[in-house]
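If it is no trouble, can you show me the amino acids of a protein and the C-alpha coordinates describing how it folds?
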Amino acid sequence: MRYLKVACSLLCFLILLGNIWTISHWSESRGVYDDICYLRQAHLFQRFGLSGLDTDISRDDDHYLSSKLKEIGFPTWNKPATAPCHNLMPATQRRVMQYPPGTGAVLALFPSGHQLIPLYVSTATIMFGFALLGIFYASAPCLTLIAGGVGCLAVYLMVNPAKASYSMAPTMAVCALAGFLTARLFGRSQQKGKTLLTVLLGFVLGLSVDFRLPNLFLSSAYFLFFLVSFLSCRKMKVFLRGVLFIFSLLVGMAPTLIANMVNAGSPLKTTYSGNDLARPDFALSVTSQYLADLQFALLAFVGASIIFHLCRGRTDGIRRVALIVTANLLVNLAFFMSHPIFTPYYTVPVAMLSLWSLLFNWLMEPAGAVDGGILEQAVKA
Protein backbone atom coordinates (compact mmCIF):
# COMPACT_ATOMS: atom_id res chain seq x y z
CA MET A 1 0.00 0.00 0.00
CA ARG A 2 2.73 2.47 0.92
CA TYR A 3 4.66 1.92 -2.31
CA LEU A 4 1.45 2.06 -4.35
CA LYS A 5 0.52 5.42 -2.78
CA VAL A 6 4.00 6.74 -3.47
CA ALA A 7 3.78 5.59 -7.09
CA CYS A 8 0.36 7.22 -7.61
CA SER A 9 1.53 10.43 -5.95
CA LEU A 10 4.65 10.47 -8.12
CA LEU A 11 2.59 10.03 -11.28
CA CYS A 12 0.35 12.97 -10.32
CA PHE A 13 3.45 15.01 -9.55
CA LEU A 14 4.98 14.24 -12.95
CA ILE A 15 1.78 15.39 -14.66
CA LEU A 16 1.90 18.56 -12.54
CA LEU A 17 5.50 19.19 -13.62
CA GLY A 18 4.49 18.69 -17.24
CA ASN A 19 1.64 21.16 -16.76
CA ILE A 20 3.93 23.74 -15.17
CA TRP A 21 6.36 23.39 -18.07
CA THR A 22 3.51 23.88 -20.57
CA ILE A 23 1.93 26.76 -18.63
CA SER A 24 5.27 28.55 -18.34
CA HIS A 25 5.24 29.03 -22.12
CA TRP A 26 1.75 30.52 -22.28
CA SER A 27 1.20 34.12 -23.34
CA GLU A 28 -1.37 36.58 -22.00
CA SER A 29 -1.68 38.09 -25.49
CA ARG A 30 -3.35 35.26 -27.39
CA GLY A 31 -6.06 37.49 -28.89
CA VAL A 32 -9.01 36.16 -26.87
CA TYR A 33 -11.51 38.85 -25.87
CA ASP A 34 -12.43 37.12 -22.59
CA ASP A 35 -8.78 37.15 -21.48
CA ILE A 36 -8.48 40.89 -22.05
CA CYS A 37 -11.65 41.60 -20.09
CA TYR A 38 -10.58 39.46 -17.13
CA LEU A 39 -7.24 41.25 -17.14
CA ARG A 40 -9.05 44.60 -17.25
CA GLN A 41 -11.05 43.59 -14.16
CA ALA A 42 -7.78 42.73 -12.41
CA HIS A 43 -6.33 46.07 -13.50
CA LEU A 44 -9.32 47.90 -12.02
CA PHE A 45 -8.86 46.12 -8.68
CA GLN A 46 -5.14 46.92 -8.63
CA ARG A 47 -5.83 50.54 -9.51
CA PHE A 48 -8.94 51.29 -7.44
CA GLY A 49 -9.11 48.56 -4.79
CA LEU A 50 -12.67 47.42 -3.97
CA SER A 51 -13.97 50.23 -6.17
CA GLY A 52 -12.74 48.10 -9.05
CA LEU A 53 -16.15 46.39 -8.92
CA ASP A 54 -17.31 49.32 -11.04
CA THR A 55 -16.40 48.28 -14.60
CA ASP A 56 -17.88 51.27 -16.47
CA ILE A 57 -16.04 51.74 -19.74
CA SER A 58 -15.49 55.40 -18.84
CA ARG A 59 -12.97 54.29 -16.19
CA ASP A 60 -10.59 53.30 -18.96
CA ASP A 61 -9.12 56.79 -18.83
CA ASP A 62 -5.62 55.30 -18.67
CA HIS A 63 -6.37 53.45 -21.95
CA TYR A 64 -5.56 50.01 -20.52
CA LEU A 65 -8.42 48.29 -22.36
CA SER A 66 -7.96 50.16 -25.63
CA SER A 67 -4.23 49.42 -25.68
CA LYS A 68 -4.90 45.70 -25.10
CA LEU A 69 -7.40 45.69 -27.95
CA LYS A 70 -4.93 47.53 -30.17
CA GLU A 71 -2.29 44.87 -29.45
CA ILE A 72 -4.48 42.13 -30.88
CA GLY A 73 -5.53 44.20 -33.89
CA PHE A 74 -9.14 44.85 -32.85
CA PRO A 75 -10.46 47.06 -35.69
CA THR A 76 -12.30 49.61 -33.51
CA TRP A 77 -9.98 49.53 -30.50
CA ASN A 78 -10.41 53.28 -29.91
CA LYS A 79 -14.23 53.20 -29.85
CA PRO A 80 -15.54 52.31 -26.35
CA ALA A 81 -19.04 51.58 -27.67
CA THR A 82 -17.71 48.57 -29.60
CA ALA A 83 -15.54 47.09 -26.82
CA PRO A 84 -16.04 43.29 -26.57
CA CYS A 85 -17.42 41.73 -23.37
CA HIS A 86 -18.99 45.07 -22.41
CA ASN A 87 -22.76 45.59 -22.58
CA LEU A 88 -24.97 48.65 -22.27
CA MET A 89 -27.16 48.46 -19.18
CA PRO A 90 -30.66 49.89 -19.78
CA ALA A 91 -31.18 50.80 -16.10
CA THR A 92 -27.95 52.75 -15.70
CA GLN A 93 -27.10 53.64 -19.32
CA ARG A 94 -23.53 52.57 -18.60
CA ARG A 95 -21.43 50.19 -20.67
CA VAL A 96 -19.96 47.64 -18.25
CA MET A 97 -18.11 44.34 -18.32
CA GLN A 98 -20.34 41.27 -18.31
CA TYR A 99 -18.28 38.91 -16.15
CA PRO A 100 -18.56 38.48 -12.36
CA PRO A 101 -15.61 39.93 -10.43
CA GLY A 102 -14.05 36.80 -8.92
CA THR A 103 -11.62 35.85 -11.70
CA GLY A 104 -10.35 39.42 -11.97
CA ALA A 105 -9.90 39.58 -8.19
CA VAL A 106 -7.76 36.42 -8.21
CA LEU A 107 -5.68 37.72 -11.15
CA ALA A 108 -5.17 40.98 -9.24
CA LEU A 109 -3.19 39.03 -6.62
CA PHE A 110 -0.36 38.73 -9.13
CA PRO A 111 1.74 41.52 -10.73
CA SER A 112 0.39 43.10 -13.89
CA GLY A 113 1.79 41.51 -17.03
CA HIS A 114 2.58 38.26 -15.19
CA GLN A 115 -0.83 37.03 -14.06
CA LEU A 116 -1.78 34.13 -16.31
CA ILE A 117 1.10 31.78 -15.49
CA PRO A 118 0.99 32.12 -11.67
CA LEU A 119 -2.83 31.77 -11.72
CA TYR A 120 -2.68 28.41 -13.48
CA VAL A 121 0.41 27.14 -11.70
CA SER A 122 -1.11 27.88 -8.28
CA THR A 123 -4.50 26.34 -9.09
CA ALA A 124 -2.88 23.28 -10.71
CA THR A 125 -0.85 22.86 -7.52
CA ILE A 126 -4.06 23.04 -5.49
CA MET A 127 -5.51 20.26 -7.64
CA PHE A 128 -2.38 18.22 -7.01
CA GLY A 129 -2.93 18.78 -3.29
CA PHE A 130 -6.46 17.34 -3.51
CA ALA A 131 -5.10 14.41 -5.49
CA LEU A 132 -2.64 13.69 -2.68
CA LEU A 133 -5.46 14.05 -0.14
CA GLY A 134 -7.50 11.44 -1.98
CA ILE A 135 -4.54 9.06 -2.18
CA PHE A 136 -3.87 9.61 1.54
CA TYR A 137 -7.49 8.73 2.42
CA ALA A 138 -7.42 5.51 0.39
CA SER A 139 -7.51 2.44 2.62
CA ALA A 140 -7.15 -0.27 -0.02
CA PRO A 141 -5.10 -0.81 -3.19
CA CYS A 142 -8.24 -0.49 -5.36
CA LEU A 143 -9.14 2.85 -3.78
CA THR A 144 -5.57 4.08 -4.10
CA LEU A 145 -5.57 3.41 -7.85
CA ILE A 146 -8.95 5.10 -8.28
CA ALA A 147 -7.88 8.13 -6.24
CA GLY A 148 -4.65 8.35 -8.21
CA GLY A 149 -6.52 8.10 -11.51
CA VAL A 150 -9.02 10.84 -10.64
CA GLY A 151 -6.17 12.97 -9.29
CA CYS A 152 -4.13 12.60 -12.48
CA LEU A 153 -7.21 13.45 -14.57
CA ALA A 154 -7.96 16.55 -12.49
CA VAL A 155 -4.39 17.83 -12.73
CA TYR A 156 -4.26 17.20 -16.49
CA LEU A 157 -7.52 19.06 -17.10
CA MET A 158 -5.93 22.23 -15.71
CA VAL A 159 -4.20 22.56 -19.09
CA ASN A 160 -6.89 21.19 -21.36
CA PRO A 161 -9.66 22.35 -21.44
CA ALA A 162 -9.23 24.72 -18.45
CA LYS A 163 -6.90 26.91 -20.52
CA ALA A 164 -9.88 27.97 -22.67
CA SER A 165 -11.06 30.44 -20.01
CA TYR A 166 -9.28 32.14 -17.12
CA SER A 167 -12.41 31.59 -15.03
CA MET A 168 -11.93 27.83 -15.21
CA ALA A 169 -8.73 27.82 -13.16
CA PRO A 170 -10.25 29.00 -9.85
CA THR A 171 -13.50 27.16 -10.65
CA MET A 172 -11.69 23.81 -10.80
CA ALA A 173 -10.07 24.41 -7.42
CA VAL A 174 -13.40 25.42 -5.86
CA CYS A 175 -15.12 22.31 -7.29
CA ALA A 176 -12.51 20.06 -5.68
CA LEU A 177 -13.05 21.72 -2.29
CA ALA A 178 -16.84 21.60 -2.69
CA GLY A 179 -16.63 17.89 -3.56
CA PHE A 180 -14.61 17.22 -0.40
CA LEU A 181 -17.11 19.17 1.73
CA THR A 182 -20.04 17.40 0.07
CA ALA A 183 -18.64 14.02 1.04
CA ARG A 184 -17.97 15.19 4.61
CA LEU A 185 -21.43 16.71 5.04
CA PHE A 186 -23.74 14.20 3.35
CA GLY A 187 -21.72 11.01 3.30
CA ARG A 188 -21.26 10.47 6.98
CA SER A 189 -23.96 9.69 9.54
CA GLN A 190 -22.51 11.47 12.59
CA GLN A 191 -24.00 14.85 13.49
CA LYS A 192 -20.86 16.51 14.85
CA GLY A 193 -19.70 19.43 12.73
CA LYS A 194 -22.72 19.39 10.38
CA THR A 195 -23.49 23.06 10.96
CA LEU A 196 -19.95 24.19 10.18
CA LEU A 197 -19.80 21.98 7.10
CA THR A 198 -23.12 23.38 5.88
CA VAL A 199 -21.79 26.94 6.23
CA LEU A 200 -18.53 26.11 4.49
CA LEU A 201 -20.18 24.25 1.61
CA GLY A 202 -22.71 27.03 1.03
CA PHE A 203 -19.99 29.67 1.08
CA VAL A 204 -17.71 27.75 -1.30
CA LEU A 205 -20.53 27.15 -3.80
CA GLY A 206 -21.46 30.83 -3.55
CA LEU A 207 -17.84 31.76 -4.14
CA SER A 208 -17.84 29.70 -7.34
CA VAL A 209 -20.50 32.03 -8.78
CA ASP A 210 -18.02 34.92 -8.45
CA PHE A 211 -15.84 33.15 -11.03
CA ARG A 212 -18.52 32.00 -13.46
CA LEU A 213 -22.18 32.96 -13.25
CA PRO A 214 -23.43 29.54 -14.50
CA ASN A 215 -21.72 28.01 -11.46
CA LEU A 216 -24.89 28.99 -9.60
CA PHE A 217 -26.40 25.78 -10.97
CA LEU A 218 -23.75 23.77 -9.10
CA SER A 219 -25.78 24.37 -5.95
CA SER A 220 -29.13 23.26 -7.43
CA ALA A 221 -29.16 19.71 -6.02
CA TYR A 222 -28.27 20.97 -2.54
CA PHE A 223 -31.37 23.19 -2.55
CA LEU A 224 -33.44 20.20 -3.59
CA PHE A 225 -31.91 18.02 -0.88
CA PHE A 226 -32.69 20.45 1.96
CA LEU A 227 -36.20 21.05 0.58
CA VAL A 228 -37.04 17.36 0.23
CA SER A 229 -35.46 16.57 3.61
CA PHE A 230 -37.59 19.20 5.35
CA LEU A 231 -40.81 18.19 3.59
CA SER A 232 -40.25 14.53 4.48
CA CYS A 233 -39.43 14.98 8.18
CA ARG A 234 -40.73 18.50 9.07
CA LYS A 235 -37.93 18.99 11.59
CA MET A 236 -36.90 22.52 12.52
CA LYS A 237 -33.19 21.66 12.59
CA VAL A 238 -33.35 20.53 8.95
CA PHE A 239 -35.16 23.74 8.00
CA LEU A 240 -32.57 25.85 9.82
CA ARG A 241 -29.71 24.03 8.11
CA GLY A 242 -31.31 24.79 4.77
CA VAL A 243 -31.66 28.45 5.67
CA LEU A 244 -28.06 28.49 6.87
CA PHE A 245 -26.92 26.97 3.57
CA ILE A 246 -28.78 29.62 1.56
CA PHE A 247 -27.42 32.44 3.73
CA SER A 248 -23.86 31.14 3.37
CA LEU A 249 -24.36 30.83 -0.39
CA LEU A 250 -25.47 34.46 -0.58
CA VAL A 251 -22.47 35.57 1.48
CA GLY A 252 -20.16 33.77 -0.95
CA MET A 253 -21.98 35.41 -3.86
CA ALA A 254 -21.86 38.87 -2.27
CA PRO A 255 -19.12 40.26 -4.59
CA THR A 256 -21.21 39.35 -7.65
CA LEU A 257 -24.42 40.74 -6.13
CA ILE A 258 -22.67 43.99 -5.23
CA ALA A 259 -21.11 44.20 -8.69
CA ASN A 260 -24.55 43.72 -10.26
CA MET A 261 -25.92 46.52 -8.10
CA VAL A 262 -23.10 48.86 -9.13
CA ASN A 263 -23.06 48.00 -12.81
CA ALA A 264 -26.60 46.88 -13.65
CA GLY A 265 -28.61 48.80 -11.06
CA SER A 266 -29.85 45.78 -9.10
CA PRO A 267 -28.19 42.76 -7.43
CA LEU A 268 -30.61 40.47 -9.28
CA LYS A 269 -29.92 41.91 -12.74
CA THR A 270 -27.22 40.28 -14.81
CA THR A 271 -24.64 42.22 -16.80
CA TYR A 272 -24.75 39.64 -19.59
CA SER A 273 -26.42 40.32 -22.91
CA GLY A 274 -29.47 38.45 -24.11
CA ASN A 275 -27.38 36.27 -26.45
CA ASP A 276 -25.48 34.81 -23.48
CA LEU A 277 -28.54 33.84 -21.44
CA ALA A 278 -30.00 30.36 -21.40
CA ARG A 279 -33.20 29.69 -23.31
CA PRO A 280 -35.45 26.61 -23.31
CA ASP A 281 -34.35 25.54 -26.77
CA PHE A 282 -32.65 22.16 -26.98
CA ALA A 283 -30.98 22.63 -30.34
CA LEU A 284 -29.70 19.44 -31.93
CA SER A 285 -26.63 21.30 -33.21
CA VAL A 286 -25.54 22.19 -29.65
CA THR A 287 -26.22 18.69 -28.30
CA SER A 288 -24.27 17.08 -31.14
CA GLN A 289 -21.24 19.23 -30.35
CA TYR A 290 -21.20 17.90 -26.79
CA LEU A 291 -21.49 14.33 -28.08
CA ALA A 292 -18.43 14.84 -30.29
CA ASP A 293 -16.38 16.59 -27.61
CA LEU A 294 -14.09 15.30 -24.85
CA GLN A 295 -16.73 16.48 -22.37
CA PHE A 296 -18.95 13.59 -23.43
CA ALA A 297 -16.32 11.05 -22.35
CA LEU A 298 -15.93 12.86 -19.03
CA LEU A 299 -19.70 12.96 -18.49
CA ALA A 300 -20.00 9.29 -19.45
CA PHE A 301 -17.37 8.46 -16.83
CA VAL A 302 -19.33 10.45 -14.24
CA GLY A 303 -22.54 8.66 -15.24
CA ALA A 304 -20.89 5.25 -14.91
CA SER A 305 -19.52 6.23 -11.49
CA ILE A 306 -22.98 7.28 -10.33
CA ILE A 307 -24.52 3.99 -11.46
CA PHE A 308 -21.73 2.06 -9.75
CA HIS A 309 -22.27 3.89 -6.45
CA LEU A 310 -26.07 3.52 -6.58
CA CYS A 311 -25.89 -0.18 -7.41
CA ARG A 312 -22.94 -1.23 -5.24
CA GLY A 313 -23.18 1.22 -2.35
CA ARG A 314 -23.93 -0.44 0.98
CA THR A 315 -24.51 2.63 3.15
CA ASP A 316 -27.04 5.46 3.14
CA GLY A 317 -24.20 7.96 2.85
CA ILE A 318 -22.92 6.45 -0.40
CA ARG A 319 -26.37 6.43 -1.97
CA ARG A 320 -27.28 9.89 -0.64
CA VAL A 321 -24.25 11.55 -2.21
CA ALA A 322 -24.82 9.62 -5.45
CA LEU A 323 -28.40 10.92 -5.62
CA ILE A 324 -27.29 14.50 -4.96
CA VAL A 325 -24.65 14.20 -7.68
CA THR A 326 -27.25 12.77 -10.08
CA ALA A 327 -29.69 15.63 -9.51
CA ASN A 328 -26.92 18.19 -9.84
CA LEU A 329 -25.69 16.67 -13.08
CA LEU A 330 -29.16 16.57 -14.63
CA VAL A 331 -29.96 20.20 -13.76
CA ASN A 332 -26.63 21.44 -15.12
CA LEU A 333 -26.92 19.40 -18.31
CA ALA A 334 -30.44 20.77 -18.87
CA PHE A 335 -29.08 24.30 -18.55
CA PHE A 336 -26.12 23.88 -20.89
CA MET A 337 -27.98 21.79 -23.46
CA SER A 338 -30.50 24.63 -23.71
CA HIS A 339 -27.74 27.23 -23.95
CA PRO A 340 -27.30 28.72 -27.43
CA ILE A 341 -23.49 28.62 -27.21
CA PHE A 342 -21.13 25.63 -26.98
CA THR A 343 -17.65 25.69 -25.45
CA PRO A 344 -15.21 22.84 -24.65
CA TYR A 345 -15.45 23.50 -20.90
CA TYR A 346 -19.07 24.35 -19.98
CA THR A 347 -19.91 21.02 -18.33
CA VAL A 348 -16.44 20.36 -16.87
CA PRO A 349 -17.15 22.07 -13.48
CA VAL A 350 -20.20 19.93 -12.68
CA ALA A 351 -18.38 16.83 -13.91
CA MET A 352 -15.40 17.46 -11.63
CA LEU A 353 -17.61 18.43 -8.67
CA SER A 354 -19.40 15.13 -9.20
CA LEU A 355 -16.21 13.08 -9.43
CA TRP A 356 -14.62 14.65 -6.36
CA SER A 357 -17.85 14.20 -4.37
CA LEU A 358 -18.16 10.52 -5.29
CA LEU A 359 -14.46 9.84 -4.78
CA PHE A 360 -14.14 11.43 -1.34
CA ASN A 361 -17.46 9.91 -0.27
CA TRP A 362 -16.19 6.44 -1.11
CA LEU A 363 -12.81 7.08 0.51
CA MET A 364 -14.31 8.43 3.75
CA GLU A 365 -16.78 5.60 4.26
CA PRO A 366 -15.79 2.50 6.25
CA ALA A 367 -14.13 -0.37 4.40
CA GLY A 368 -16.68 -2.37 2.45
CA ALA A 369 -19.14 0.53 2.12
CA VAL A 370 -18.99 -0.01 -1.64
CA ASP A 371 -18.85 -3.50 -3.10
CA GLY A 372 -15.98 -3.20 -5.56
CA GLY A 373 -16.69 -6.66 -6.96
CA ILE A 374 -14.53 -7.62 -9.91
CA LEU A 375 -12.53 -4.40 -9.63
CA GLU A 376 -11.19 -5.27 -6.18
CA GLN A 377 -10.57 -8.88 -7.24
CA ALA A 378 -8.53 -7.73 -10.21
CA VAL A 379 -6.34 -5.52 -8.03
CA LYS A 380 -5.79 -8.31 -5.49
CA ALA A 381 -4.84 -10.67 -8.30
Observations:
- The chain has 15 helices and two strands.
- Residues 41-107 form one domain.
- The chain has a mean pLDDT of 90.
- Residues 125 and 213 are 24 Å apart (CA to CA).
